[in-house]
Amino acid sequence: MGMCLPCLGGVPEDVVETPDPEIRRKQLAEAAEKRQKEVTNRGIKNPEAVERKKKKQEEMEKQALTSSKSGEGGGLKWQVG
C-alpha cells in the first residue's frame, strides 16, 4: 500500500537522492585523502615537525651521496713512507 504513495503525488521523506557520479567520485576521493592523513598522523603530536625532519634527513643523505661520488677516492688517503 505504501508503494502507491509516489504514484499519487506524495513524496516520501525517507528517500535519499543519489548525487551525480562525478560529485560522488570527488567526495570519495576527498574522504580517502582525509582518512590517509589521519592514519599517517596518528600518534604524532606535531606532524609538520616530523615532515621537516624527514626532508632534512633525505637532503643530508643525498648530499652525502653526491659528495662521496665527487671525491672518487672515498675520502681515504694512503701514505707510504
From TrEMBL:
<feature type="compositionally biased region" description="Gly residues">
    <location>
        <begin position="71"/>
        <end position="81"/>
    </location>
</feature>
<dbReference type="Pfam" id="PF15811">
    <property type="entry name" value="SVIP"/>
</dbReference>
<protein>
    <submittedName>
        <fullName>Small VCP/p97-interacting protein</fullName>
    </submittedName>
</protein>
<dbReference type="InterPro" id="IPR031632">
    <property type="entry name" value="SVIP"/>
</dbReference>
<feature type="region of interest" description="Disordered">
    <location>
        <begin position="29"/>
        <end position="81"/>
    </location>
</feature>
<dbReference type="InterPro" id="IPR055366">
    <property type="entry name" value="SVIP_metazoa"/>
</dbReference>
<keyword id="KW-0564">Palmitate</keyword>
<keyword id="KW-0449">Lipoprotein</keyword>
<keyword id="KW-0519">Myristate</keyword>
<feature type="compositionally biased region" description="Basic and acidic residues">
    <location>
        <begin position="48"/>
        <end position="62"/>
    </location>
</feature>
<feature type="compositionally biased region" description="Basic and acidic residues">
    <location>
        <begin position="29"/>
        <end position="40"/>
    </location>
</feature>
